[in-house]
Write a structure and sequence with these properties.
two-stranded antiparallel sheet; little secondary structure; Transposase_IS66_Orf2
């Protein structure tokens, strides 16, 4: 992941233990992500089909 901060560039890399990243389609050589898509991408979640985990609540 490469982005501009205005006075420089930031580079972020991440390697998955298994599976692949689900990247959106590129337009004009660029990929645009929402903050939610980026968060899911970095967590290894397929943002195209996110699955909510059900947790029990003890009252």
């Amino acid at each position: 992941l490469l982005w501009s901060t205005g006075d420089g560039l930031c580079l972020l890399t991440k390697r998955l233990e298994r599976g692949r990243f689900a990247w959106p389609s590129a337009r004009d050589g660029k990929v645009f992500l929402t903050p939610a898509q980026l968060a899911m991408l970095l967590e290894g979640i397929d943002w195209r089909q996110p699955k909510r985990l059900l947790t029990s609540l003890t009252i």
